[in-house]
Each structure stands twice: as structure tokens, then as C-alpha cells.
Fold:
Amino acid sequence: MSEGGSKIPKWVWITTPTLAVAFIGFILYLSTIPAGNELDAVKGDAKKALQIGVDKAKEEAAKKVDKPSYDFYKLLENQTVEVPEVEEYHSTPKDAEEKYQYLLQVGSFRSGDDAERLRASLLLEGMDAYQKKAEINGNTWFRVYVGPFTDRSKLNKAQDMLVARSISPLVLKEPLKK
Structure:
């Protein structure tokens, strides 16, 4: 292009043809709309067609008079349900609360020496720790426990002491034997 080229901005080149095409489309749309008296004729034909459809639907509905009858409600009135006798439920009195004891499982080891080492360090901390041997799937495990506790506040205090030592205990709840 030469230096003395067109000084018309690009948006004018884009907008002008777009408006021209839109105007032509609008004119074509207006030519498809029927005139006022033609519009009334089209509406009248539509109403007639709708009325014919409604009349046909009413005739078909009248032909289908034989509706299925359901005897469901009559059957229920005539049936009785046999309820078996159930033994009475006796609830425990509200004042007879079941007592529990709590244990903290501190660790589970395959080696008895490791379990004994942890138990000894917990005893030096002043905790009531003990060790139990368990057979699981043919393997021997040595579990270290702290407790038992019957008071939740003592349990929480022991948990806090263990967490301070970076030990995450597992709380076990067992009903007290009467």
C-alpha cells in the first residue's frame, strides 16, 4: 500500500457491511409476515384446526370407557395381618449406668525387647504400663498398654503425656465386670 492510502479506520470497514447485511435480512423477514387481513385468516385456520383436534381427542376418550379396576383397597379391608408374639423388652433403669474402664494401647512390637524397653521408659515416667503377648495370624506381637483408667480425666492426662512424647495411643473401652 502506498503512504497516501485510505484514512478510513478498520472498524468502519467491518461495521458498514455488517449493518447492510442486517438491514437486508430485516427487509426479507418483513416480506414473509402476512398482511393484517391475511394474519386474521391464518389465526382463524389455526383455531379451527385446534378445535378439530380437541373434538377428536374427546371422541377417542369416550371410546376408551373400559378402565381397569383395582381391587387393592377392597383387598386390604378384607385381610388381616398376623403379628407374632414378641418377648417384652426390659430397659435398664436410668440410674443403673454401665461402668467402663479405658486402656491405652501405646505400641505393638514384633520384638519383646522393644516392647519391654518402651514399658520401662513409661514406668520411669510414672505411668502404669504393662505388656501382653498376642498371636495374630501365626505371628507373635508384644503389645504395650497403659492403664486401666476408670476416670476420663486421668485417661486424658495420660494421653497428653504420651502425645508429648510423640506417641499416639489407641483408646480401648471395656465394660467393667460386675
